[in-house]
Amino acid sequence: MSSLSTLLLLRFPLAALSSSLPSCTQDPPPFSPRVRTFGNKYKSPRCPAVPKRHTQEFREVFQNGLPVIKWHEIVDDELEGDDAIKAHRKETISNEIKEHVDSIRVMLGSMEDGETSISAYDTAWVSLVEDVHGSGTPQFPSSLQWIANHQLPDGSWGFSKIFSAHDRIINTLACVVALKSWNIHPRKCERGMSFIKENLCKLGDESIEHMPIGFEVAFPSLLEIARSIDIEFPDDSHVLQDIYAKRNLKLTRIPKDIMHTVPTTLLHSLEGMSGLNWEKLLRLQFSDGSFLFSPSSTAFAFMQTKDENCLSYLTKIVERFNGGVPTAYPLDMFEHMWVVDRLQRLGIARYFHTEIKECVHYIHRYWIEEGICWARNSRVQDIDDTAMGFRLLRLHGHEVSPDVFEHFEKDGEFVCFRGQSSQAVTGMYNLYRASQLAFPGERILEDAKNFSFNFLREKQANNELVDKWIITKDLPGEVGYALDVPWNASLPRLEARFYIEQYGGADDVWIGKTLYRMPYVNNDIYLELAKLDYNKCQTQHQLEWNTIQEWYTKFSLGDLGITRNALLLSYFVAATNIFEPERSKERLAWAKTAILMEVVTSYFDKEGTSKEMKIAFLHEFKNNINTRDYVFNKIGRSDPNNIECGELLLGALFGALNDLSFDALLVNCRDIRHHLYYVWETWLHITLHSIEGDKHHGEAALLVHTINLSVGRWLSDDILVTHPHYQRLFELVDSVCNQIAYLQKNKVYDSGIYDTIKNRVTTPLIELYMQELAQLVLKKPLDDIDANIKQTFLGVAKSFYYIANCNSKTINFHITKVLFERVN
Prior knowledge:
Domain Terpene synthase N-terminal: 277-483
Signal peptide: 1-18
Oligomer: single chain
GO cellular component, one term: chloroplast
Shape: elongated
Cofactor: Mg(2+)
Strand order of the largest sheet: 2-1-8
Structural class: mainly alpha
Protein name: Ent-copalyl diphosphate synthase
Number of strands: 10
CATH topology of the largest domain: Farnesyl Diphosphate Synthase
Radius of gyration: 32 Å
Helix content: 55-70%
């Protein structure tokens, strides 16, 4: 049995969906023969080419059961209705997709230093700067005006979309201090203080993880300024006492000798500290004049030093944002990286190849060996941005060393910032994602993967998947998917289907000193496009599912032992890898090839099929390669009661290969028939002479060849034989798929083979092969072969890995969700 087919049967219960498969209109088979094998007759009208699977392995599936899937209710209504209505609906969807694509392209084309929301807290600090010419007026009156114009109806300032007591109170107190300092808008000040006093008690009710960065230091400092200008504030609040205790503890931990000599994250929050040596700190100033890209920290530094570079930075951002300033700026690296990540995970990256390429080049331009942070030319690096940048650069073929992560590792632990000892969920999440793109010999990535995996699993087990940098729709879902479906098993449409539900769009909020939004990273247009595109692709997939069922009936594959469940899973694997509507030929070639391999290998392996019968089958195939009408000549004219099983199988095989050849000729104007028959003949010969433990040799290569040939992608015979990368790709994909199938079939769970911690069927050798395969596919040498051809190798290998590492219930769930549940 073929390796992919073996996995399909072993991991997928044959009866699980039999009563609930989507129906399709089918023509009756042209004949209903009594079949026999070469030289032997059977009384049964069904050919036992595929032996019945024992259901004991899936007893828990049948006991627990799956909900009865009402396919007619969830299959896309695009398949039903009047032709004119369907045509109008299709045109409307296409127009909506085009509008969204155009809007997003405008956004991506306008990216500069980062589009972000305004921080009332930072704006208040900037508004406190006095005129440098000594007039006693504000240096930035537009900042004061912004504050006056943006008080919320409840008297507070801050992020209006969601209520966070920490965010509202620190923003409000800063704005009240600013207005009071300049003796303007007393009524606004009164309303602001009323809000603070009424809501101060709510600080103790909120998650400490969602507390703005540095709140426990910045807020007490603001209180001292407020009291110095006669703003009354209660002293007996238990909440305040707790904040002061946290402030004192944190200040005792601040290594002031270090913060004055090397750049650290403390540069971002200077306004909350006293007793600073400004002569030393100015040596740590960034090239744009800021202190770690913080407007409030830089404003405070200017008040203390009158440094012209600080003033230049502040003037620039006040003009850029018309008075108000963000909590950090620039955010260019962060924006460029996270935009690409969102577009890819939502499954809509193919609309923006040029824009994504430009973003990745931008990231590469400012990448340094020590790592990166949210803005270019930073002297402080963080693991979150570094991991995201590393992952994107490696995925897009750029040379990038994993040694960058050594800067964030100490004594076996990985931290968010160098010299610190803390981790954040999203930082470890992105480290885990990056670590899975390891190439052979990259030990630091193995260490990073193990550490981040264990960290995230522990947080998951303790229900602590809450992050200090973002408030997002479904962070537990994102982390859960990454932990359960490793990159080697994550298929494109599967990831997109889940991420569309996890992505919060414009509702996702980031946490800095205050809450803020990144509209080019989180917006509803991405989400709407992703939903429209997904449903459009799904409609095409459902139509193809009907088509492949008609093919199944036409060639009597049921009589050859193939269940509709196996057919469905074969198509699911193909469609989840190659999902674009225009790539229908590749999907169908993949699915049909997998099924035909299953039939052939099952026929060869079944009891009663002698070596002579196998040889006869191979000779029959070779002798009829040039016979285009085998089905008509050999089967259509035969007595239906005496059709040989081998002849029926050959009829299905020739029919499928002729269809693939004809489709390729129509689409690509190239005749692939000779090449297609040659690769099949080669595989049949290998299968005929295979031995136990090596029965799946050549199957992945056949899949790759057939998929690429179906769309006219092939290389010259010289390159096929001599190109070292091409030959190695075949060796690797064949070894991976062969070993995975063998382990799965034989349930070999010895030490080092079955990973009980991660619950995955794998071996160190399989992991090494997958790493080398990824290296050959992702890297871009000068004498490289077509990237699409290389991606086919990786897609086939990942499909084997996926099936081996997901149990039957999970696969059933994925099939339903990906192919038949419409995205709302």
